[in-house]
Amino acid sequence: MNFECKGSGLLSKRIWTIIAAVVLGVIVLAAFMTTSRGEIPVRSERTRRETIINTIQTNGKIEPIQNFEAHTPGATTVKRLLVNEGDTVKKGQLLLQLDDAEARATAARALAEMRSADANIAAVRGGGTHEEVLGTQADMVKAKGELDAAQRNLDATKRLEQSGSASPAEVSAAETRLQTAQAQVNLLQQKLKGRYSPPEVQRVFAQKTEAQAAYAAAQDVLQNSNVRAPQDGIVYSLPVRQGQYVNAGDLLVQVANLSKVQVRGFVDEPDIGRIGMPSPDAPGRARSRESRLRSSCGARAPWARSRARWITATASCCPTST
Prior knowledge:
Elements: H1 2-37, E1 59-64, E2 67-71, E3 76-81, E4 88-89, E5 94-98, H2 101-126, H3 130-163, H4 168-194, H5 198-225, E6 226-228, E7 233-237, E8 245-246, E9 251-256, E10 261-268, E11 288-297, E12 307-315
Antiparallel strand pairs: 1-10, 2-9, 3-5, 3-8, 4-7, 5-6, 7-9, 10-12, 11-12
Helix pairs in contact: 2-5, 3-4
């Protein structure tokens, strides 16, 4: 009995101790918060105008503005390489030579065909070749002599018919001979004046036009077989080697003036409104001279629905990194 009363007293004392500790903790915490509330640091500054820069990240490439590319005019081989990649070249300097043996043969054949066409045109305009004209003139002299003889024979036969010494059949034969001689003279005159028909004349002129086109094409191939620099610059791409076989249209060399380049970057359609050129006085940036937007197919982001823009900025310096 005494033991139970003693245990109840201990439990009651422990509960009151816990309650007192909690109350004390609350009082201490309230006092701390009240004390520290008046010591919160506050920063203040004067109002001023500043530039807010909103940037976006994209990819692109640096490319030259004044660029020269040489392509193969026809299937051939690289005969000589006179420069290396990275060389500085002057305007008019010979860069490489292509094998032009076939082009020279083609040009020679085209020139021969063109001269043959000129001779045919002269023959058409003159009524035939010189030999043909001489032969026709000789035949004309004979035909006229025959015509005169036939005319005299007809006159004599008619006089004999009047005297009863010639029959009507002989007169008819003389008339037929005269008509045949006259027809021969008319034919030869037509040969001298208009030997060829209009379709034949058109064919001869068409042959000359075709020969001229072939010769011009061969000359163009010959001219492009010797590649020269059109401007001062640097050989920044040389994908061929000496003796290599190249097909028509293959890239041979690229030369550019790298003192002026442009940066071409890809920007998604939703970010176009945020694009602006940097200030000329902005530190660490190239002075911008020109900006333009170009349409481009194929979006990099799936939500752009294949709509995007290219931003091209022209700089007056040569950047070292993209």
